[in-house]
Design a protein that fits this description.
Blueprint (H helix, E strand, L loop, with lengths): L23 H6 L2 E7 L9 E5 L1 H9 L4 H15 L6 E7 L12 H22 L1
Parallel strand pairs: 1-3
Antiparallel strand pairs: 2-3
Amino acid sequence: MRGDFCFSDNVSIRDGGTIGLALLPEIEETDQLIVIDAGELKDTPGAMRVFEGEAMDKHLSASHGSVHEVAMSDLLEAAALMGRTPKDRALVVVQPKSLDWGDAPTESVAAAIPKACKTIASLIEGWRS
């Protein structure tokens, strides 16, 4: 049990932060990838969007609303060069109040976390079917 959600043993949860290419081996070895981040959506704080497959690739290559998006874009491009892009992939983005550095989510982002968790669980379930 991780929080309010149960995941099978083959689901790994990682805090990638800004560690960049150190995550490349894990991404190359997976068939399914979900990335969660706060990022610029040009929407109200707490708004959430999901980008799947090529929409994720397009969003990451066009948008660098946070330093995390730059690193993820680089990781996926490196995996693609090796022919190891995860078949199923999604990016869950929550609009923050500010993209300044901080050590905790703002109130609007914290309020969006339960919805993001449900969305992630739905993605995983959908990919299993």
